[in-house]
Amino acid sequence: MDRKKAESQLQQSEELNSALFNDHAAVMLLIDPNTGEIRDANVAAVDYYGWPRDQLVGMFIQNINTLSPDEVKQEMQRAESRARTFFEFRHRRADASIRDVAVFSSRVHTGEEGLLYSIIHDITDQKKAEAALATRTQVFLLALAVLCLMLLGLVVRLVMILRQRKRAEDALQQKSALLAKAEQLAQLGSWTRDMATNGLTCSDEAYRLFGCTPQELTPTYTGFLERVHPLDRETLACKHSVSVRMGIEADEFEYRILRKDTGEVRYINERCEHVRDASGTVIRTIGICQDITERKLAEHQTTIQLKLIACSAASPLSDLLTMALDEVEQLLNSSISFWHFVEPDQKTLSLQQWSTATLERFCTSQGRGMHYNIDQAGVWVDCVRERKGVIHNDYVSLPHRRGLPEGHAEIVREMVAPVIRQDAIVAIMGVGNKSTDYTPEDLSTLSFLADVIWEIITRKKTEEALRQFNQELEKRVRKRTWELEEANRQLEAFSYSVSHDLRAPLRGLTGLTRILLGKHTTGLSEEGRKLCVLINDNATAMGLLIDDLLFFSQAERTALHVSPINMTAMVRGVFEELGSTEDTARVDFQLQELPPIEADPCLLRQVWLNLLANAVKYSSKKEHPVVQVRAELKDGQAVYHVQDNGAGFDMQHAHKIFDVFKRVHSTKDFAGTGVGLAIVQQIITRHGGRVWAQGEPDKGATFSFTLNVVETERMKSNQQ
User: Fold this and answer.
1) Which domain holds residue 207?
2) What pLDDT is recorded for position 717?
3) Residues contacting residue 558 through CB under 8 Å, at least 6 positions apart
4) What is the pTM of this model?
5) If residue 44 lies in a helix (H) or strand (E), which one and from where to where?
């Protein structure tokens, strides 16, 4: 029984020792001191070095230790003889990183075999700190030596240094004052946020921007958010969080704050950068903040001005005034606002408009458009007597205030500004019941906007007078248009008459020549037959010329019937119509996808017909004629090109190529009337586009034109 008990205790002891070795958090290795082979390694060692346990066990310590094999063997001998039990080495891990380690090693016996039992601790960070401390110590000693030399020099030149010190102190005091003033003028504060503790450190200027002292602002990020305007608080916190999560190195934000000292709303621009540790985790955020309230007010003023200008174009005066009051009321954080006109006698007022909020929530008294004497008005007419804007932040305590009519909004504080033109007050704008006191800056903003609104009102009155003038002018234009249309109708009748009168003899000529060539050809000489053919060809050409001239005349007067056009389909169809001729059949026709447009289909089809027919005609003498049609979008327009490799032309004639009857090639070489390109230019110009040509003799030509692009769902489906 005693033996079994002893064996059980021995087994428990071995299990305990094994657990102490394998489960211990410290890195532990068992090493053969003779060969350096690693006989065993605990879990912590496997995790630390990064090799699998079955690979780590069996490796040699020489593979891990950065010392030479001989040096490693010497150190193992010292550990085995207990001459030394503590070592500092540099060990290599599986990821090739080198770490500084402290090793406690001593000999242990496992049966008959003696092994080195080594406990390893990572001291890399400690080594770095020691190196940094050593560097700082050296710097300190060097600085101390320099300081001693300086002190020695100071003793020798004491009087001179005292005088220089006085001058330097005076200069430093001046520079310090200038720097403090610059910081105040720039309204630039700085802060640092510790991401681990959420602590916040701010500069003096930052506290001044927030209107509080360091004792009044909780030095945490949460305390900072409490100073942010409630409407911007959640958005700003979300943006900060996203900036950190998305790995953005630097970011910029704009938000509003509530100053603790005055309760005033201020606009802040913030720029920050994130500082990361070696793992990429943000550990600190550094930022600067600047008060941009004046800039934002200027932007808001400009926005209001643009809105009012846009409103004045389509709204009556009453709507314009209401919109102006609503915008000013919101900008100045007020809850009521009004607008009065002052009559030329400078004694009579008329209530012109209240803001939307004033009428809906606060004021139900009547009086819009009512005229009454200035002496009957409340304290707000102080601005008329003083001829400048006034602020009443303590309205209730004013001794000369009057009672308010029934239904009138309660007044807590108010601010009014007069509009002065040619030394006379023409209008008054007022706001009231801001949650905090009005400031001189608020009054400046109100005065500026009151002037702007008055200018818009004046312009609207001028526009009304101009509108009446335009109506009269439109009557005259309609009359002149009718007269012009009548003249065009007469010209059209004349064109048809001339066309008919010219065609009749031409038909006679062609008919007679056909009779001569058909029935009397035997009685004609060879020269006579040639003359008959020439007469017939010239009569045919004359007929084509009459058709082109008639189309040219009609194209200028014909009303445009605009509709969506699938340009790719139209060009393909026009070329197929030309395909019946031998010249067209030889052409290598290259058509790219063309953007759709809205235009007159009939007229635009004539454009493509003329340009493609010319391209085929002038490339017909080439062995391999090529005609290419392409387009691109540029600056809101579609630019279409028809390019051929034909006869081309000299660019010195490009200025006249679109004139009627102006040809750059002889009719002997290429037939034509000289009107086709003029028709193209006329049609494109009527559609608001332009047309031009580029060419080079015997190397082809490119004819281009532009049309405005209209992207609509209807056109897209039509294109499909």
Assistant:
1) 187-291
2) 42
3) 603
4) 0.37
5) helix 43-49
